[in-house]
Amino acid sequence: MSENLQDWREETDAIIDELLSDGSNPEAVYTIEHHFACRDFNRLEKLAVELFKLGFELTDAEEMELDDGSPIFCCDAVSEGALEAERIMDEIGQLLPVCTRFGVDYDGWGTFFEE
C-alpha cells in the first residue's frame, strides 16, 4: 500500500469505528459517497465519465467558492454496500489512480448513520 492509501485506510477505519460506536447498524446497506474537487470543470467532467464506466453513480457537479473567492467544482461517486473497510478501500484503490490521471483531488468519503 502506498502511504497515501495507508492514510485513507486509517481514516476509513476511524469513520467505521465512530459509526458503529454511535450505534449505527452493522448489517445495514450503506450509501458511500466518495468526494472529488477540482478547479477545472473539464477535468472533473472527464473524471466523472471514467468513474461511471467503472460502475459508480455520479452526482451532478456543483460549483463552490473557496475562502479566497476562487471557484472549485465538486461531485460525488456513489456506491452501496456493507460498511466494510476492505470493500471501501478497494473502491478508493480504484479511484485514486483515476484522480491522479485527471488531476482531480480525492476528498475522502462519507456515509450516513443507519438505524
Short description:
Keywords: Cytoplasm. The chain is α+β, with helices and mostly antiparallel strands and 115 residues long.
* Rg result: 15 Å
The fraction of residues in strands falls at 25-35%
Give the terminus-to-terminus CA distance.
33 Å
| Low-confidence sequence ranges | none
Overall morphology:
globular
Number of strands: 5
User: What's the mean pLDDT score?
Assistant: 93
The number of helical segments is 3
Largest sheet: 5 strands, antiparallel
Specify the helix fraction band. 40-55%
Based on helices, strands and strand pairing, what is the structural class? alpha+beta
Question: What's the order of the H and E elements?
Answer: HEHEEEHE
Protein name: Regulator of ribonuclease activity B
Main location: cytoplasm
Family: Belongs to the RraB family.
Organism: Pseudaeromonas paramecii
Secondary-structure topology with pairs:
Layout: H1 3-21, E1 30-38, H2 41-53, E2 57-58, E3 62-65, E4 71-81, H3 85-102, E5 105-110
Antiparallel strand pairs: 1-4, 1-5, 2-4, 3-4
Written overview of the protein:
This protein has helices at residues 3-21, 41-53, 85-102; strands spanning 30-38, 57-58, 62-65, 71-81, 105-110. It is of the alpha+beta class. The protein contains three helices and five strands; from the N terminus they run H-E-H-E-E-E-H-E. Strands 1, 2, 3, 4 and 5 form a five-stranded antiparallel β-sheet that branches. Helix 1 (3-21) packs across helix 3 and helix 2 (41-53) crosses helix 3 (85-102).
